[in-house]
């Protein structure tokens, strides 16, 4: 568990990055549903998934595109956890098995998107959306 000093340092580091992201309002990102992107998720609170590394980013699956600036995403993890909230995805080229974290759905700005990694197959995307809808019932 992080001590208060470590938490403050992480939040300050994330705030600097967030200011740079926010400043880049002219950035236009072309994205679609089913795509997996690296995105800045930040330093969050409690059990919310944080971004990884010193840039606070992690892979996310785009669930819903509302417009060119706003989208719903599901963060992804390689944590080997068995839970109805962790849904395994197919992986390519020897990558580690990734899981989408259904309980962590969130709205983000397209300014947080960094780089597209791949597109989830249609059948697998339908499974993810069905599991998410089932969770919302």
Describe what this molecule looks like in 3D.
The chain contains 2 helices and 7 strands. The N and C termini lie far apart (34 Å). It has a single domain, classed as SH3 type barrels, CATH 2.30.30. It is globular. 26% of the residues lie in helices and 29% in strands. Strands 1, 2, 3, 4, 5, 6 and 7 form a 7-stranded antiparallel β-sheet that branches. Strand 2 and strand 3 form a beta hairpin. The chain is of the alpha+beta class. The model has no long low-confidence stretch (mean pLDDT 89).
How many angstroms does the end-to-end distance come to? 34 Å
Q: What's the number of helices?
A: 2
Indicate the CATH class. Answer: Mainly Beta
Task: State the shape.
Answer: globular
Report low-confidence residues grouped into runs of 5 or more. Answer: none
Percentage of residues in DSSP E strands: 25-35%
Average pLDDT level: 89
User: How many E strands?
Assistant: 7
Q: How would you sum up the major sheet?
A: 7 strands, antiparallel
What is the count of distinct domains?
1
Question: What value does the Rg take, in angstroms?
Answer: 15 Å
- Which H/E pattern describes the elements? HEEEEEEEH
From the helix content, strand content and strand pairing, which structural class follows? alpha+beta
Which architecture per CATH?
Answer: Roll
Q: In the CATH scheme, what's the topology name?
A: SH3 type barrels
Helical proportion, percent range? 25-40%
